[in-house]
Backbone:
């Protein structure tokens, strides 16, 4: 079993097609077929079933696919570590930032990092905390900002802030003039949710569950600006991090603290355990923690 064979196998699964995988890898289709046949012989298992509309993983193939992604990510990390040993920081750094965290905490960090390391291409990958885990396991993201709880068995976490959710309502809403709101007062309010994978949704669902209720969902969006616009239009209410309102204009909206319970959570930078962070990633984390006034333990 070799790295090339694993890479060919993973690409065929991701492309769902031998021909497209061959084009992506700039090799011939027979070369990919031979490589996967060799894998199957070595493992004494059928990995893929060709179908008219693509390929289908067998149970053995599914196990190999998930492990192969992690092996390839670690191999790429090793290459990065060896290449980064000498010389100025160059290359691509893929950083994962959830949309609700990015603008609040990282706008200045992105600016300073780009000024300090102009030869590094900084790619910001916007995903929810739930999707960030898979992205790091696959090697699509090297380091990310995430919301707790997060898998501490597989990731190193460097906490940098504690935030809480605040109620956001149209300024004509009956609750708009209150100094604080108990969560129980929101049980009959229509909520504007983010897309399914966002951790904020879980916090709201869990808080409703304490009262034996399910949230009333009036709409969903993956874009903060659209969520705020829907609230401003009176479609519903939403909950967003307190830290956002230090840097955002909130015309037509009212921000109200939520009590009983206070919906708080930790924010952290995450890296995959067992991987060797590139010097680019290490520089990013150290700069971020410095600017966020947190000690670095890298």
Residues:
């Amino acid at each position: 079993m070799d790295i090339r064979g694993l890479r060919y196998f993973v690409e065929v699964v991701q492309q769902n097609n031998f021909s497209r995988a061959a084009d992506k890898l700039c090799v011939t289709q027979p070369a990919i077929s031979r490589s996967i046949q060799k894998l199957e012989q070595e493992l004494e298992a059928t990995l893929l079933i060709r179908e008219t509309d693509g390929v289908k993983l067998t149970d053995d193939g599914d196990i190999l696919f998930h492990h192969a992604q992690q092996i390839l990510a670690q191999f790429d990390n090793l290459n990065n570590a060896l290449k980064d040993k000498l010389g100025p920081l160059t290359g691509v750094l893929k950083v994962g930032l959830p949309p609700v965290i990015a603008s609040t905490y990282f706008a200045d960090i992105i600016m300073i990092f780009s000024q300090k390391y102009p030869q590094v291409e900084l790619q910001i990958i916007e995903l929810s905390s739930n999707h960030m885990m898979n992205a790091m396991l696959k090697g699509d993201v090297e380091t990310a900002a995430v919301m707790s709880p997060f898998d501490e068995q597989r990731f190193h976490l460097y906490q940098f802030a504690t935030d809480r959710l605040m109620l956001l309502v149209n300024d004509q809403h009956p609750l708009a003039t209150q100094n604080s709101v108990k969560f129980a007062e929101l049980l009959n309010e229509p909520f504007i949710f983010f897309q399914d994978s966002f951790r904020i949704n879980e916090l709201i669902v869990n808080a409703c569950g304490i009262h034996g209720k399910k949230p009333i969902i009036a709409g969903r969006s993956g874009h903060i600006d659209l969520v705020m616009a829907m609230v401003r239009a009176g479609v519903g209410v939403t909950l967003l991090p307190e830290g956002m309102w230090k840097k955002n204009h909130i015309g037509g909206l009212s921000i109200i603290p939520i009590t009983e319970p206070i919906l708080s959570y930790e924010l952290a930078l995450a890296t995959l355990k067992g991987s060797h962070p590139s010097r680019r990633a290490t520089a990013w984390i150290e700069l971020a923690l410095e600017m966020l006034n947190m000690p670095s333990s890298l």
Q: What stands out?
A: The mean pLDDT is 87.
